[in-house]
Design a protein that fits this description.
Helices cover about 0% and strands about 55% of the residues. The protein has about 90 residues and is an all-beta fold. It has a single domain (about 5-85), classed as Immunoglobulin-like. The chain has a three-stranded antiparallel beta sheet, with no helix packed on it. The N and C termini lie close together (about 5 Å).
Length: about 90
């Protein structure tokens, strides 16, 4: 992508557990990444749409960003890695 562009990736998050999952917070390594998702519980077997946005303003070269998705009742967050090559 080019410097100044914004990339938006639609995602589907699926709960394959036997109990509801609640996202309590999303921690990110920079303000250039945003994960948008409804904060309502995701029931077992349910799929929930989400959107990941990466804003390349002011960045160049290879970018590696980390998002930690914290779930209620879990001590270990899910990790999402975002990679981009910005020209």
């Amino acid at each position: 992508m080019h410097e100044g562009e914004t990339a938006v990736l639609p995602l589907l998050l699926r709960n394959d557990l036997t109990h509801p999952v609640v996202i309590t917070s999303v921690e990110r390594t920079c303000g250039c990444t945003i994960l948008e998702i409804d904060n309502q519980p995701i029931m077992p077997g349910e799929t929930r749409p989400a959107s990941l946005t990466f804003d390349a303003r002011g960045t160049w070269g290879w970018q590696l960003k980390l998002l930690k998705i914290h779930l209620a009742g879990s001590n270990t967050p899910l990790r999402m890695i975002v990679e981009a090559e910005v020209e």
